[in-house]
Here is the input.
Amino acid sequence: MASRCAHLDLVLTDTPNRAGCEEYLAMGDGWVHLRLCRTCGHVGCRDSSRNKHATKHFRSSHHPIVTSLEPGEIWTWCYADEVAMELD
Here is the structure.
């Protein structure tokens, strides 16, 4: 595990594409806790949701950095480096 994230150059947005998990919205289903891809704005659900859409998005897109969209949570995670951080 790295001590620092080496992918901060891939942080390109802080604007979500949708108001909920994109895949669950398409299916008409609910989600648990949202994550924002900081490269493309994709919104996915966390790993405790049935389909783990945020992690699936990382695996298919290789966009490594997500930020929690939950109220009161200010953390960001880099999947590639397994590093938690706070972004300004």
Summary: Helices lie at 22-27, 53-61. The mean pLDDT is 94.
